[in-house]
TrEMBL record:
The keyword Oxidoreductase applies. It comes from the Bacteria. The lineage of its organism: Bacteria, Pseudomonadati, Pseudomonadota, Alphaproteobacteria, Hyphomicrobiales. This is NAD(P)-dependent dehydrogenase, short-chain alcohol dehydrogenase family. Residues 8-195 form the Ketoreductase domain. The keyword Oxidoreductase applies. One of its GO terms (molecular function) is oxidoreductase activity. PANTHER family: DEHYDROGENASES, SHORT CHAIN, OXIDOREDUCTASE UCPA. Belongs to the short-chain dehydrogenases/reductases (SDR) family. Keywords: Oxidoreductase. InterPro entries: KR_dom (IPR057326), NAD(P)-bd_dom_sf (IPR036291), Sc_DH/Rdtase_CS (IPR020904), SDR_fam (IPR002347).
Length: 273
């Protein structure tokens, strides 16, 4: 099936790399015009140039998702360029790991919360009116995490933000349903996905402000029933489903894409045993 979001306009935050980039590329291939926003002014334009070179339509807009003033400008620019907004993928986020919550600074707590939670709030506050102006409904997809469904040692602050995103999505889904605007709202919960974020998680062991040497593939072999890390493209397929009319009866729920981690543990046995 092709053209699943043909003629629609999508905005993807944190779209310069990883899951955001995979979502932007797939939505564009499936017919959407895509506004990619990010603070990365190197990879963002490169990604958009590749999308446009492939014959699709995309634009890059520099954005710090914690700036409300910038949100006003971004939404205005999207409507000016494309005339409407149908899909919001609120994906921008960071992860900060510490040995214990007692080691976490208030500065880091607030920075993570500002990006992961305030940024999602602002995305909805400013994109929802534009989506309603477009008419015909739409889809808001908030990228949470498996850490938004279960606790993880060393990631309590991250869990707090991603759990907040999960319930925020449900509340906005009910708000949209109550006014009958046809806009569906869901959250996506990736497990261990092989993306650049693993090299950006500062930990105490690596030294403050340094990158932690975390190998997602090795971690996934031990932690996931499918014994491998997921790929950003696999999360993008889930986002495409929620963005398209294929999910027209889906709202207020979670799409978990985690290789089976949330389901439980599995003891792998040799084939044929």
């Amino acid at each position: 099936m092709t053209g699943q979001v043909q003629g629609k306009v999508a905005l993807v935050t944190g779209g310069a790399s990883g899951i955001g980039a995979a979502c932007a590329e797939l939505l564009a291939r499936e017919g959407a015009s895509v506004a990619v926003t990010d603070i990365d002014e190197l990879r963002g334009p490169e990604l958009v140039a590749g999308i446009n070179k492939a014959g699709h339509r995309a634009v890059f807009l520099h954005q710090d998702v914690t700036s409300e003033a910038r949100w006003v400008e971004v939404v205005t620019e999207v409507e000016k360029r494309f005339g409407r907004l149908d899909i919001l993928v609120s994906n921008a986020g960071i992860g900060i790991s510490v040995p214990s919550i007692t080691d976490m600074s208030l500065e880091d707590w607030r920075r993570q919360t500002a990006i992961n939670l305030d940024g999602v709030f602002l995305s909805v506050k400013h994109c929802l009116p534009a989506m309603r102006r477009s008419g015909g409904g739409g889809s808001i997809i908030m990228v949470s995490s498996l850490a938004g469904l279960r606790g993880a040692p060393g990631l309590s602050g991250y869990c707090a933000t991603k759990g907040g995103v999960r319930l925020f999505a449900k509340a906005i889904a009910m708000e949209c349903a109550s006014v009958g605007d046809g806009i569906r709202v869901n959250s996506v919960h990736p497990g261990i996905i092989d993306t650049p974020i693993w090299g950006k998680i500062p930990t105490e062991a690596a030294g403050r402000g340094q990158n932690a040497p975390i190998d997602p593939e090795e971690r996934a072999k031990l932690a996931t029933p499918l014994a491998r890390a997921g790929h950003a493209s696999e999360i993008a397929q889930g986002v495409l489903f929620l963005a398209s009319d294929a999910s027209s009866y889906v709202t207020g729920t979670e799409l978990v894409i985690d290789g089976g981690m949330n389901a439980g543990g599995a003891v792998r046995r040799p084939v044929g045993s």
